[in-house]
Amino acid sequence: MTHSMTTRLRRAAAAHRRGVPVTLSLYIARQFMLSVIAMIMALSGLVSLFDFIDLLRRVATRPNVPTSLVSKIALFHIPYFIIMILPFGVLLGGIICFWRLTRSSELIVARASGISAWQFLAAPLACALMIGAFATAGLSPLSSAMYRRAELLDETYLRTGGGPLMLNGGALWVRQMDSVSGEHGVAILHARDVHQIDGVLHIDNVSVFRIDDHDHLVLRIESPHGLLANHAWQLAEASSIMPNHLPVRIGDYTLPTNLTLRRVEQSFASPETMSVWTLPGFIRLLERSGFSSIRQRLHFQTLLALPILAGTMALVSAGFSMRPTRRGGVARMIGSGVAAGFALFTVSKVAAQFGESGALPPVLAAWAPTGAGLCLAVALLLHLEDG
After folding, report:
1. How far apart are CA 173 and CA 282, in angstroms?
2. Which of the residue ranges 5-19, 82-96, 157-171, 268-282 would you say has the lowest mean pLDDT?
3. Which residue of 274, 313, 347, 358 lies most exposed, with the fewest beta carbons within 10 A?
4. pTM of the predicted model, to two decimals?
5. Which of 264, 197, 184, 245 has the alpha carbon at shortest distance from 225?
6. How far is the C-alpha of 363 from the C-alpha of 93, rounded, in Å?
7. 78, 73, 80, 75: which is closest to 150 by C-alpha?
8. What gap in Å lies between CA 67 and CA 340, rounded to an integer?
9. Per-residue pLDDT for 144 more than 80?
């Protein structure tokens, strides 16, 4: 009987020991989530306010544009701002959360009971990863749709550029595999003037170069005008020019393509108008059509890295704010954490510029800030745990 009672007591004690970390983890996770969400909302609201003021400044010279339109554009920008501000919101929210737990001695008591910093941070790290994953998988489609709508309203009422095609100087270059038309080689289309009329893409002064697998020019087509319709470039009054031959009038000429007007416009639009789910297929289409896909690939990798970056920011916030108050220097540590966040943000923007210019591969440009922040966080926590 005594042995059985001892066994039951040991089991109860073991269950109790297992239950304490779970309860503590849920408590820490709740505090962390509340702080992070509040900080993300506050920062997004602040950025949206400045965006609204900037839109009001732009609309001041357009008396025919109502203020309600400015409010609508600013509202459509909010999901995009949330995604952009999310890593910094996790950092500041985590710093506030861990600083409060340290000031109230809850963290000190938890660590005195034998819970290491790594066990303590498991729940906040999981929360940060879930927030980043939700932003990438769930909020990204909503953000892209609303940002696309905002850009359309902006181009229609606030800009005079005439749309994304006119921003490219009115010219168009398309490179596509001739396998689209059942042949081998490459077809390169160059239109010197591009304009859209009633939802149809019209092209003028068109040249089509058909090149074989050995990079030899096989045929050249010249046409004064044409259009994109029914998944084909339809050229009128075309002339065919073969190497060492005189031009021959062939009339109408059709070049099949996978492009549509929407896809051509998207190729010139900002990558933020596409979600993480549509980017891979669109990147493949751009590469087959000869358009540059660097910006799209960089944006795709940035969205993929967002959950890891959010988790990294949670670890960085812990490393800078879990210092016991009796040691002093807490304000300096928290200030250093904020400065580190700004430094990582600056590094990410600089890396993005290098990625867009082609100096860095998009994968490296998107993941380098995350890797640098993770190394910093691990070093801080190792110093905190062992020091």
Report:
1. 17
2. 5-19
3. 358
4. 0.74
5. 197
6. 28
7. 73
8. 39
9. yes
Cα 345 from chain centroid (whole Å): 14
Query: pLDDT digits over 51-93, tens only?
Result: 999 988 888 877 777 888 888 999 999 999 999 999 999 999 9
**Which candidate, 337, 367, 385, 346, places its Cα nearest to that of 93?**
337
* Most confidently predicted of 77-86, 107-116, 232-241: 77-86
Q: Judge whether 293 and 283 are in contact, CB under 8 Å.
A: yes
Sign of CA dihedral 319, 323, 328, 330: positive
pLDDT at 289: 65
Residue 268: pLDDT over 70: no
Q: How far apart are the first and last CA of the chain?
A: 47
Distance CA 33, CA 128 (A): 8
Over range 222-250, report the average pLDDT.
Answer: 87
CA distance 9 to 193: 85
328 pLDDT band, cuts 50/70/90, is low
User: How many other CB atoms are found less than 10 A from the CB of residue 136?
Assistant: 22
Average pLDDT rounded to a whole number, residues 153-162: 69
Residue 98's closest CA among 90, 107, 87? Answer: 107
pLDDT at 19: 44
Q: Give the three-class secondary structure for 20.
A: helix
Report the SS3 class of residue 299.
helix
C-alpha–C-alpha distance, residues 95 and 318, integer Å: 6
Rounded CA-CA distance 66/68 in Å is 5
DSSP 94: H
Residue type, 103: R
- Residue 56 CA to chain centroid, in angstroms? 26
